[in-house]
Specification:
alpha/beta; Ferritin; Rossmann fold; N-methyltransferase activity; 618 residues; transferase; globular; coiled coil; 13% strand
């Protein structure tokens, strides 16, 4: 199944499920977890059938009968065993009248509604997995039987058997993102936009070891890291150990389900013991190869004494007010991320933009941090990347294992004007934009081979030749298709017009997708050619940390002389204004003439309308 088909499947499933919600009396909050639970159950069944098929291939035969599969067979393959009553096919094929079917649980209790049967199925699944114990939703008796039966039917789509677990995981994340704006009680804190997560994972490049997210929300960092490791031909569960903390238990449930849907295992702690300000729930200080997080921004009223007693503050406490509280916890989080790293560890996290140049004790901590030489990359992100807020943010990256020649340097990227518009309220980085920014980091690190592989990837998609020429040819092809579409529609019979237009629209959409890729190829290659890093005014710059290590050369600046600011915009400068070849005065004259013509046409129309109204006696 190609990407376009998967997107259609996502959208169709969401539309069907959400229409049911709108027709019920359930709020998004009541609906979210149970729906995600059914998606999880559908994934578990899909994976169960696949593993069962593998087991039966070599199954011994006794007395002419194939030996039945058992839970231990699945445990050997790190898969979840499903008793018959927890299998999706069993649930979706139940009779309409559950009470009359006389369905009895293990304890002998008769179940009288479909909701009770699904709750029981969730309990059976939890009994097979220590990680899922107490996690799966069991509120299905809140659903009318006909509504629940219809939901089961929607997720029984045969396409889900064809696409496998990876895509069901993607659909789970799609549903999570769609629920985020409506469900979030704390500004969507449980869901970090996927493009931000991907950017963090791509720059950190996790391969093996311990990964911690101490504000893990719904587990996006774990899932994306798992995908990254698996894409390199390794097994994420064997190569990585995942640890998470999430104070809100609801979010921790989402996280554990999300990980399970993606075939990942990890240790996630929630509740009071997972309040990161006061607890290191996993005792991970100095132990992590990777730290990733999107913590809540600008938290106030953190008890200073309790936070200090909890440790993990290598640079000291941020500012404390008269009530002995930390008034803004951003630098508590920043200190924790640094403290958890081992001697070669890397960290990447989302942070409020204001933290890059906040003053007072924050500035003192930032100075100490810069002087370690472990600040690696800083990226400014524009508005509308979050589902429920339009605020900008920054991505911070630490690397305790930086190459010696990079220890006195930091790469700044101002990406506030580099994004793809999804809709009026949401922006993101496309996959190619993510690759382009990743390529800048590769060049900064001297990894030219990775950059060149990306250029080869562009050619494999677009074809050989000059990217500028490919782009212009693509623009011409789209113009031709539009003209062909108009001519074909004009000459077609009325009954065929819609079909013909739809066929051309599909062709044009494919070409426009290629055009978008060509534009990104031109964007990257025009700046860095075959692989030589250079500062790009208004976008990226390599800056020295202190005046002492800054070389004597024109244009060299240090973070120290900018008062230890880590704001990319303070360093990258302003992009030069491109000459579009249009004479300003000449164009203004043309616009004035066009305006006069439009005004004259407007007056003629008004006269005609007035005349017609008089003739009608109005």
């Amino acid at each position: 199944m190609d990407n376009k088909s998967i997107k259609k499947l996502e959208a169709d499933l969401w539309e069907a499920a959400d229409l049911l919600r709108q027709g019920s009396k359930l709020t998004s909050q009541q609906y979210c977890m149970p729906v995600l639970g059914l998606l999880f159950l559908r994934y578990a069944y899909s994976r169960f059938k696949k593993v069962e098929e593998e087991i039966l291939k070599d199954r011994p035969v006794r007395n002419g009968r194939v030996m039945p599969v058992e839970a231990s067979d699945f445990a050997e393959k790190s898969a979840l065993y499903l008793p018959k009553e927890a299998q999706y096919s069993y649930l979706v094929n139940l009779p309409e009248d559950i009470k009359a079917a006389n369905i009895v649980a293990e304890n002998g209790q008769q179940m009288n509604s479909l909701g009770e049967v699904v709750n029981h199925a969730m309990e059976l699944v939890e009994a097979q997995s220590e990680q899922l114990a107490g996690v799966l939703p069991k509120e299905y008796t809140n659903f009318a039987d006909d509504l629940l039966a219809e939901l089961l039917r929607i997720f029984n789509n045969n396409a889900l058997d064809d696409v496998g677990g990876d895509v069901i995981g993607r659909i789970y994340e799609y549903f999570l993102s769609k629920f985020a704006p409506a469900v979030a009680s704390d500004d969507g804190v449980f869901f970090t936009p996927k493009s931000l997560v991907k950017m963090i994972v791509n720059i950190l490049e996790p391969t093996s070891g311990v990964l911690a997210d101490i504000a893990c929300g719904s587990g996006g960092m774990f899932v994306q890291s798992g995908d990254f490791v698996n894409s390199k031909g390794m097994s994420a569960n064997k190569a990585m150990t995942f640890y998470g903390q999430e104070k809100v238990e609801y979010n921790a449930q989402l996280c554990l389900m999300n990980m399970a849907v993606h075939g990942l295992t990890g240790v996630i702690k929630s509740g009071n013991e997972a309040n990161t300000f006061y607890n290191d729930a996993h005792n991970l200080v100095g132990c992590c190869d990777y730290v990733m997080a999107n913590p809540p921004f600008n938290v106030d009223k953190v008890k200073a004494e309790a936070a200090q007693n909890a440790g993990r503050l290598p640079f000291g406490l941020p500012g404390v007010n008269k009530a002995n509280e930390v008034g803004n916890a951003n630098y508590l989080w920043i200190s924790y991320f640094y403290a958890y790293l081992n001697e070669t560890g890397r960290a990447g996290f989302v942070m409020a933009s204001s933290a890059t140049d906040s003053q007072g004790k924050d500035k003192d901590i930032r100075e100490q941090l810069v002087k370690t030489g472990h600040v690696d990359v800083m990226i400014s992100v524009g508005n509308n990347f979050f589902y429920t807020k339009s605020l900008p943010c920054s991505l911070w990256f630490f690397d305790k294992g930086k190459e010696e020649e990079l220890k006195d340097k930091v790469l700044f990227i101002d990406a506030r004007n580099y994004f793809t518009v999804v809709d009026r309220t949401l922006n993101e980085w496309s996959d190619w934009q993510l690759k382009n920014m990743n390529a800048i980091v590769w060049l900064y690190r001297g990894e030219i081979d990775k950059y060149q592989q990306l250029i080869e990837e562009y050619h494999s998609v677009l074809g050989d030749g000059d990217f500028e020429e490919i782009l212009h040819a693509q623009e011409d092809r789209i113009k031709e298709l539009r003209n062909e579409a108009k001519a074909a529609a004009d000459n077609a019979a009325k009954k065929d017009k819609k079909r013909i237009q739809a066929e051309f629209d599909e062709k044009i959409a494919e070409q426009e997708e290629q055009l978008t890729i060509a534009k990104e190829a031109v964007w990257l290659y025009s700046k860095f050619g075959d692989g030589e890093y250079q500062d790009i005014p208004g976008f990226c710059k390599i800056v020295y940390t202190t005046e002492e290590n800054k070389p004597e050369e024109d244009g060299a600046i240090s973070i120290e002389e900018k008062a230890w600011s880590l704001t990319p915009g303070a360093y990258v400068g302003v992009a030069p204004i491109e000459d579009d070849g249009v004479d300003f005065h000449e164009r203004m004259g043309e616009i004035h003439e066009e305006l006069l013509m439009l005004q004259a046409e407007s007056n003629r129309l008004m006269e005609t309308i007035s005349k017609n109204m008089k003739e009608m006696g109005i």
